[in-house]
Amino acid sequence: MTDIVGFVFSGIATFFVNPIVYLLVLALFLYSAQRVRRERRSFRVKAYGMFNTIFASILPSLIVGLIGSLVLIVAGVSLAPGVIVLFSLAYFVVLLTCQQRFLSPAIAGGLTLVAAYFIPVFQTPYPLINRWIAEIHALDYLSFGVFLIVGLLVETMLIFFWGANQTSPRLISGNRGGLVGAQEACQIWIAPLFFLVPVTGVIPAIGPWPFVSDGTSFSFAIFPLGVGIAQLITHSLPKQAVHQTARWMMATSGISAIFVGAAFLLRLPILVVIGGAAALISRLVLVWYHHHLRETHPFYYVMPNRGLRLIGVIPHSLGARLGIIPGEEILRVNDQEVGSVFEFYDALQKHAAYCKLEVIDRFGEQRFVKGPIHEDDDYKIGLLFLENDQWNIKQKTNS
């Protein structure tokens, strides 16, 4: 029992001494603050608070990280300290781009496999670095291939189940210079993954990160797997677009799994490298595809011929309580037709304590919603519109 406790605590220590953890946490704070700043520029109000976004990522990360860890431990996946260093360096390179859309185990894992395969044999004056280099050259490609597949599946699950939560409403410049609406799926998750590390002795001593070891006994380590999504959605509802992204990543996972399986059957480690490169290329193509959709597909959040287009709804507001969702149109307020935010606000004042809205959903179906207005409700009852009658395009689209 004491040995097991020692394993667990040594593994937890590897998580907190990994500098990538703190870089990912810093990125999470910075991107959350940037999101709030963009929403205020577009609507003069934030849809979600910065800390709300941060805390919302914790539980999904832990759930999916636990599932992935169980798979890795049962499969007996082990990564040597030098490989962990190389994988961390790959994540560091990704973070240097300051592009949340590139934060993916597909990109970091693909870079790691390609670098491990092509890195030359060389010596340095530092024994620790020489040991890491030797461990990289002795990489168990099948073990890392399984780790990569689990990482891709972790990314797929996070995007599919939580990627469309708390999307950020945006106002951007359209192709003809006018304002159009958009939704941005903008999340960062830090999933802790348990796996095995070869060490000397049964319970290792915690030394310089990562473990300094030459042995064949094993202990646990935890790697902070960073997953990010920054998908600007202009052509459809967020859930549809995000699920399409998740299906793409599932297909990427399947392709990589085929290469890893073939490497196991044919005893050809190079196939694992090809599978990692395929995952890397697939993820980059996905980023290009998102841009292609924005450039070639008609905008979904445009001004309707009548009424107002809804871009976002502030959580816990009257609009949210009434079940109004982004993409719908507000045609009438208190039986008065509205065509601007000023008219919407003016119509609300007809009954200061109560409102009745005529809503057109994305299928063109009409429905009526109504409810009491409380004293602490927002003056727009929490609805964020595509506005043509105030602010200027530069101010709204400045990122």
TrEMBL record:
Signal peptide: none annotated. Keywords: Membrane, Transmembrane, Transmembrane helix. The chain crosses the membrane at residues 6-31, 51-73, 79-96, 103-122, 142-164, 185-206, 218-234. The keyword Zinc-finger does not apply. The keyword Cytoplasm does not apply. It comes from the Bacteria. This is Uncharacterized protein. It comes from Sporolactobacillus nakayamae.
